[in-house]
Design goal:
Chain A contains ten helices and four strands. By secondary structure, chain A is α/β, with parallel strands linked by helices. Chain B has one domain: SH3 type barrels (Roll). Chain B has two helices and five strands. The chains are: A alpha/beta, B mainly beta. At the A-B interface, strand 3 of A face helix 2 and strand 4 of B.
């Protein structure tokens, strides 16, 4: 290979990027200090912390999709979900802890969308970790002010006859949107229906996939 | 106990500290959507103080009332009873 003096390129021909070694923030330092103290004092262990992170990472939108597809197939479950979503999902076997959950049902006249303007409240037990944009200032401030413009940027344009209802998750409740069952899926098995349910359709920023 | 359908106004307070009433809803008027039961007051809980349980409500607001945007869409938020006054 000819020596080309491009010392800003790596051996593979890509430009070098600066390392993200910006030092720890105040809060990162605090977290490390508290964690190390708790381990030192025997209140928790490094293993227990790692196990909890594993548990958090193991949750995914597939959990929520199972809830949605069951609600589409089982009217008694849909009613239970409407009455007390925490109890209904707990009875399905999901470990949702002390979570208070409200299921928001979409139909042709109502589209629900969830945001947490104060922080990043999210039904992690059913949807896993929130996407980065959910925590962004832009999403949090704009969704309560111009939800249709935000939806349009997600590729969702709703007719004027459909009311958009924004849910600001300000306190003790968490929310999951139950999108409407798509036409053309009559007789489908629950697990095939679950494959149509996207993460964003359960936040309200997306729609379910079209059946093929 | 505020019944669903009751018209309420959110207090205009601007206290310091951990408050779960978003600033954009303070002073605004909405309708009780449902009562959610009582929860420990986060304004005390956040500081490790003994937190009394306060009734929590979901309140529906019209976006047009919040932003004067001409929108016919709505917004629901959870507001603690001590921030609400029947109007």
């Amino acid at each position: 290979m000819p020596h080309d003096h491009h010392d800003h390129l790596s051996p593979s021909g890509h430009p070098y990027r600066a390392d993200q070694d910006t030092g720890l923030s105040y809060w990162q330092t605090l977290e490390i200090a508290v964690r190390e103290l708790m381990i030192e004092k025997g209140i928790t262990t490094a293993k227990a912390v790692a196990r909890q992170i594993d548990t958090m990472d193991s949750r995914s939108p597939a959990n929520g999709a199972r809830v949605v597809s069951r609600a589409w197939c089982d009217p008694a479950f849909a009613r239970a979900l409407r009455d007390d979503a925490a109890a209904a999902t707990r009875n399905m076997g999901f470990d949702i802890g002390p979570l208070n959950l409200i299921a928001l049902f979409n139909d042709k006249t109502l589209h629900n969308i969830v945001v947490c303007t104060l922080c990043s409240c999210y039904p992690r037990n059913l949807l896993g970790l929130p996407p980065d944009w959910y925590k962004s200032r832009a999403y949090r401030s704009r969704t309560v002010r111009e939800p249709r413009a935000v939806l349009a940027e997600f590729g969702v344009t709703l007719p004027e006859t459909t009311e958009v209802r924004v849910h600001d998750s300000t306190a003790d409740m968490r929310y999951i949107v139950i999108p409407a069952r798509p036409d053309g899926t009559e007789g489908w098995e629950e697990q095939d229906l679950a494959a149509l349910v996207t993460r964003d359709s359960m936040i309200g920023t997306g729609l379910v996939k079209a059946p093929t | 106990m505020l019944e669903p359908g009751t018209r309420v106004q959110v207090a205009r307070h601007m206290p310091p500290g951990h408050v779960r009433t978003p600033a954009y809803l303070r002073g605004r008027t909405g309708i009780i959507e449902r009562a959610l039961g009582a929860f420990p007051n986060p304004e005390l809980l956040a500081y490790g103080l003994r937190a009394d349980r306060v009734p929590l409500y979901r309140v529906t607001f019209r976006l047009d009332d919040l932003w004067d945007s001409g929108s016919t869409d709505t917004l629901d938020a959870e507001i603690y009873a001590h921030w609400l006054k029947e109007v």
